[in-house]
């Protein structure tokens, strides 16, 4: 299934042209299961923050209800799906932004083979706190990593602190503690939900600056995003992480405790 709606209807040819040729906006991606989404309020908060940052527009009190209706309308009879909600410039520059809802097949949460990751000190996302359409830099970093024989890239700032992967947040294991980097980066919905669930489940965790020099002290690393919480990282540059399966199991067990919110 592949559906795309603009403000609750199929876009016409002129609107499709506008969407395809103007790369400006922001979005959130979510996995819908049985018409429910984990962390729905966090997704809506992300969109509201993006609207204020990129459009100078603060949604009204009924915007969340409108978004729910737009998502459900685009899904039609489907109950499970991958959904991306984007805000893009409207035809009237002085008016509110348009809403694009793209619906696709539900993504499997099964992780791929453990990743071999390369540190890329040049890869840094613009407006790192927001999930926006300026994604060329991250895809270039991934392509360069793959050309060099790796699977993906990890951003490290000019201060030598670990930030984030191309399309994922990273977490490390040190003893029994899960460590999340504190740096300019996107606070992924999945990451935030895991942190809340870890607190509720009594899992030891912390968020703090992680210098590159500390990477050899960790025993495992995991990439998390809206698709999966248990993507093992086998290595970062020449550092190997042997306890990836242990950490992946911990993340998966924690994630199971996170409830779904009804659309």
From TrEMBL:
Keywords: Aminotransferase, Transferase. The keyword Ubl conjugation does not apply. The keyword Transferase applies. It comes from the Bacteria. Transmembrane segments: none annotated. This is Aminotransferase class IV. InterPro entries: Aminotrans_IV, Aminotransferase-like, BCAT-like_C. Pfam families: Aminotran_4. One of its GO terms (molecular function) is transaminase activity.
């Amino acid at each position: 299934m592949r559906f795309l709606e603009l403000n609750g209807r199929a876009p016409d040819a002129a609107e499709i042209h506008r969407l395809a040729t103007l790369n400006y906006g922001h979005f959130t991606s979510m996995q819908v299961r049985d018409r429910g989404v984990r962390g729905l309020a966090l997704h809506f908060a992300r969109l509201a923050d993006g609207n204020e940052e990129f459009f100078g527009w603060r949604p009204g009190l009924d915007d969340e209800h409108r978004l729910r209706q737009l998502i459900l309308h685009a899904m039609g009879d489907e109950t499970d799906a991958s959904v991306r909600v984007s805000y893009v410039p409207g035809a009237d520059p002085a008016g509110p932004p348009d809403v694009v809802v793209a619906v696709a097949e539900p993504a499997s949460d099964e992780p791929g083979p453990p990743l071999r990751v390369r540190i890329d000190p040049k890869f840094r996302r613009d407006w790192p706190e927001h999930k926006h359409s300026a994604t060329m830099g991250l895809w270039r970093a991934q392509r360069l990593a793959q050309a060099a024989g790796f699977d993906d890239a990890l951003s490290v700032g000019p201060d030598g602190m670990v930030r984030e992967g191309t399309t994922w947040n990273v977490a490390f294991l040190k003893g029994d503690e899960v460590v999340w980097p504190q740096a300019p980066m996107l606070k992924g919905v999945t990451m935030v939900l895991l942190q809340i669930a870890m607190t509720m489940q009594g899992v030891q965790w912390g968020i703090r600056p992680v210098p590159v020099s500390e990477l050899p002290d960790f025993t495992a690393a995991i990439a998390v995003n809206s698709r999966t919480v248990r993507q093992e990282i086998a290595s970062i540059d020449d550092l190997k992480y042997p306890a990836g399966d242990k950490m992946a199991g911990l993340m998966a067990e924690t994630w199971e405790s996170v409830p779904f919110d009804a659309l």
